[in-house]
From TrEMBL:
<feature type="transmembrane region" description="Helical">
    <location>
        <begin position="426"/>
        <end position="444"/>
    </location>
</feature>
<keyword id="KW-1133">Transmembrane helix</keyword>
<feature type="transmembrane region" description="Helical">
    <location>
        <begin position="21"/>
        <end position="42"/>
    </location>
</feature>
<dbReference type="InterPro" id="IPR005828">
    <property type="entry name" value="MFS_sugar_transport-like"/>
</dbReference>
<keyword id="KW-0472">Membrane</keyword>
<feature type="transmembrane region" description="Helical">
    <location>
        <begin position="268"/>
        <end position="286"/>
    </location>
</feature>
<dbReference type="Pfam" id="PF00083">
    <property type="entry name" value="Sugar_tr"/>
</dbReference>
<protein>
    <recommendedName>
        <fullName>Major facilitator superfamily (MFS) profile domain-containing protein</fullName>
    </recommendedName>
</protein>
<dbReference type="GO" id="GO:0022857">
    <property type="term" value="F:transmembrane transporter activity"/>
</dbReference>
<dbReference type="GO" id="GO:0016020">
    <property type="term" value="C:membrane"/>
</dbReference>
<feature type="domain" description="Major facilitator superfamily (MFS) profile">
    <location>
        <begin position="1"/>
        <end position="449"/>
    </location>
</feature>
<feature type="transmembrane region" description="Helical">
    <location>
        <begin position="62"/>
        <end position="82"/>
    </location>
</feature>
<feature type="transmembrane region" description="Helical">
    <location>
        <begin position="359"/>
        <end position="381"/>
    </location>
</feature>
<dbReference type="InterPro" id="IPR036259">
    <property type="entry name" value="MFS_trans_sf"/>
</dbReference>
<feature type="transmembrane region" description="Helical">
    <location>
        <begin position="306"/>
        <end position="328"/>
    </location>
</feature>
<dbReference type="InterPro" id="IPR020846">
    <property type="entry name" value="MFS_dom"/>
</dbReference>
<keyword id="KW-0813">Transport</keyword>
Length: 458
C-alpha cells in the first residue's frame, strides 16, 4: 500500500467540502442499510401474518429469517471480498437488483418454504450492500465529516418505520393477504434505490490502493465538478510512483493474512463478537416480537394495535440516530457510546416480563432506542477500524458473524417460545447476549479523531 499517496489524498479530500455528492451518497448508502432494515422488520410481520393465514407453527416460521440471514451470511463475505479485489462499485450497483428480483418472486409464494428460498436470494443481495456501503461513503468523505456515517442511520431507521407504518395502514384498510402488498412495497423501494446507484464512480481510495492514480485523480475531479468546486486543484502525481512502491494486489489469501496480522487480528476478533452478540438479540428478539408482546401483556390487542406499537417502537430510531451522531463526537466517542448503550439495552429487555402493557411499551421503546444507537455506531466505527485494502472484507466478515447469529437466534427463540410456559428463558438469553456485545465493545480502540491513514497503519 502506498501510504504516501493515501496520506496526500487524505490531505486533499480534507479541504473538500461535504457537498452534493456526499449528500447523495448519504441517502443512497443509507437506503442500502434501510433495505436491510425493511427486510428484517418485515420478517416479523410476515411471520406473524403467515402464521395466522397458513397455520404455520411458531418454530417453523423461523425458516423465513433463517433463509434471509443465510443469504446475507453468504453474500456478506463473498461480495466483501469481491469489493476489495474488483472494486466497490461492482456490489454497490448490482446487489440490490438481486434482492429486487428475489423479492418480486417471493410476492407469489404459496408456502413458507418457497418464501424462505426467495428470502435467501434477497439476503444474498443485501449482504453485498451491507459489506460495501459504509466503505463507499467513508472513502468519499472528509475526515472532519466522518461522524455523518453514524447520522446516515437515520435513513436506515425510516426503512423500518415505513414497513411498520404500511403494515398498520394496509391492515386498517382491510387489504387481503396484506403481507403480499407489504412485500411489494419493500421491493419497489429497493428498486428505486438501486437505480440511482448507477451514477456513482469508483472510490478514489480503492483506485489508489490498486495503483490507479490517474483514475483516482479523474474521480476526484468529477467529484469537485459535481460539488461546484471546479477551481480546486488536487493533483496526486506530484509524488513519483516507483514500481516498487506500487500497492500490492492482494488475493484472498493475502487479504486473510493481513486481517490476521497482529495489528488487526485483535480488533477483528472483538468486532466479530460485537456484531454476533448484538445481532443474536436484535434479530431473535425482533423476529418474535409480536409473539413476545402478546405473551408479555399485549394478548388482548389485535394485529393492527400490535403493528401500531411496533411503529412507535421504530420511531424511537429517529432520536436514537440524532443522539448517536452527537455522542460519537463527544468525550464518549465511538467506543463508549456503543458499549454503554448495549449494556443498558440488555437491562431493559427484562421489561418484557411485565404484565402491564404501559410498562411494556415504555421498556420496549427505550430498548429500541438504546439498541439503535449502538447499531448506528457499529456501522460507522467498523469501516474506520480497518485499512482500505481489506475494509470491505473486514466488514463482510463481521456481517457474516452478524448473520450467523441471526440464523441461530430465531430458531432458538422459536423453540423457547413454543415449548416453554413463560418468556423468562428467552429474555435471560437475549439479555446475556446483548451484555456480551457491550463487554466486547470495551476492548476495541477508539477511532474518533484518528485520520484514516493512521487507522490503516495501526
Amino acid at each position: 500500500m502506498n501510504y504516501a499517496l493515501i496520506n496526500q489524498l487524505e490531505e486533499k479530500i480534507e479541504n473538500v467540502k461535504f457537498g452534493k455528492l456526499q449528500w447523495k451518497l448519504f441517502f443512497l448508502c443509507g437506503m442500502g442499510w434501510a433495505a436491510d432494515m425493511m427486510w428484517i422488520t418485515g420478517n416479523a410481520i410476515f411471520m406473524n401474518e403467515i402464521g395466522e393465514e397458513w397455520g404455520v407453527p411458531v418454530y417453523q416460521r423461523s425458516a423465513l429469517p433463517f433463509g434471509l440471514m443465510l443469504g446475507v451470511f453468504v453474500g456478506s463475505y463473498a461480495w466483501g471480498t469481491i469489493s476489495d479485489r474488483r472494486g466497490r462499485m461492482l456490489p454497490f450497483k448490482r446487489t440490490l437488483i438481486i434482492s429486487v428480483i428475489s423479492g418480486a418472486i417471493g410476492c407469489a409464494s404459496m408456502n413458507v418454504w418457497m418464501m424462505a428460498v426467495c428470502f435467501f436470494g434477497a439476503g444474498l443481495g443485501l449482504g453485498g450492500n451491507l459489506a460495501v456501503d459504509g466503505a463507499v461513503f467513508i472513502e468519499y468523505c472528509p475526515n472532519k465529516s466522518r461522524h455523518m456515517l453514524t447520522g446516515m442511520s437515520i435513513v436506515c431507521v425510516f426503512g423500518s418505520i415505513l414497513v411498520c407504518g404500511c403494515a398498520w395502514l394496509y391492515l386498517g384498510i382491510g387489504l387481503p393477504e396484506m403481507w403480499r402488498f407489504l412485500l411489494v412495497t419493500i421491493v419497489f423501494i429497493t428498486l428505486v434505490s438501486a437505480i440511482f446507484r448507477f451514477s456513482i464512480n469508483e472510490t478514489p481510495h480503492y483506485l489508489i490502493s490498486k495503483g490507479k492514480i490517474s483514475e483516482a485523480e479523474w474521480v476526484i475531479s468529477e467529484m469537485l465538478k459535481y460539488n461546484g468546486e471546479e477551481g480546486v486543484n488536487i493533483p496526486l502525481n506530484s509524488i513519483e510512483v516507483q514500481q516498487e512502491n506500487m500497492p500490492e494486489h492482494l488475493d484472498i489469501r493475502g487479504q486473510i493474512k493481513l486481517l490476521l496480522s497482529p495489528p488487526l487480528r485483535r480488533s477483528l476478533v472483538f468486532y466479530i463478537m460485537i456484531w454476533f452478540f448484538t445481532a443474536f438479540t436484535f434479530t431473535g428478539f425482533g423476529s418474535y416480537l409480536p409473539e413476545i408482546m402478546r405473551r408479555a401483556g399485549a394478548g388482548d390487542t389485535d394485529n393492527q394495535s400490535l403493528y401500531m406499537t411496533m411503529f412507535l417502537q421504530q420511531l424511537s430510531g429517529i432520536p436514537a440516530v440524532i443522539l448517536a451522531t452527537y455522542l460519537v463526537k463527544s468525550s464518549l466517542g465511538r467506543k463508549w457510546t456503543q458499549a454503554i448503550t448495549l449494556l443498558l439495552g440488555s437491562a431493559f429487555i427484562f421489561g418484557f416480563l411485565t404484565s402491564s402493557y404501559d410498562i411494556l411499551m415504555v421498556c420496549s421503546v427505550i430498548f429500541y432506542l438504546l439498541t439503535l444507537i449502538a447499531y448506528s455506531v457499529q456501522y460507522a466505527i467498523t469501516p474506520e477500524a480497518f485499512p482500505a485494502e481489506v475494509r470491505s472484507s473486514a466488514v463482510g466478515i463481521c456481517n457474516c458473524a452478524n448473520r450467523l447469529a441471526s440464523m441461530i437466534s430465531p430458531i432458538l427463540a422459536g423453540i423457547l417460545l413454543e415449548f416453554t410456559s413463560n418468556d423468562v428463558p428467552a429474555v435471560i438469553l437475549f439479555s446475556a447476549s446483548l451484555a456480551a456485545a457491550g463487554l466486547s465493545g470495551c476492548f476495541i480502540k477508539e477511532t474518533k479523531d484518528m485520520p484514516k491513514i493512521n487507522v490503516c497503519q495501526r
